[in-house]
Design goal:
Number of domains: 2
Shape: elongated
Order of helices and strands: HHEEHHHH
Distance between the termini: 62 Å
CATH topology of the largest domain: Multidrug-efflux Transporter Regulator, Chain: A, Domain 2
Number of strands: 2
Largest sheet: 2 strands, antiparallel
Helix content: 55-70%
CATH class of the largest domain: Mainly Alpha
Length: 135
Amino acid sequence: MMIGELAARSGLTPSRIRFYEMNGLLPGAQRRTNGYREFKPQNLQMLEIIRSAQQAGFTLDEIRALLPTNLDMNTWSHDKMLETLKRKVREIETLQRRLKKNKAQLQAIIDAVENKPDDMDCIANAERVIAILRK
C-alpha cells in the first residue's frame, strides 16, 4: 500500500510515517519505479504498536529497542519486552507517587489561600502560605 493509504488506515499523517521510517522505527518501504513508497501490510501493525507504546509513555528509543527487526515477529525478544514493560510500570508508579505528593501540596496551598482569615491582607496571607509550604 502507498503512504496515503497507510496514513488513512493508521490515523497518522504521512509526515509522521516518514518520521518513524527515517528514525528507524519503521522499516524502509520499497520504492516503486515512480519513486513512491510501497508499504507492507505489517507496517500497519508496527504503526499501531508504536502509537500504543508512545501513548503508554515509552520514548522513541525505548520503542526502537523493543520492535522486531524488519517486521519479523520471530526476532521479537519476549523476555526483553516483558522486562521493559515491567520497568515502565515501575516508572509510572514512581511518577504517580510524585504526582500524589505534588497534588497534596497544591491542595494545601489552595486551602490556605481560600481559607484566609477575613481580617488578613494579601501580603500577610502570602507569608502565611509560605510558612505552611515550609512545613
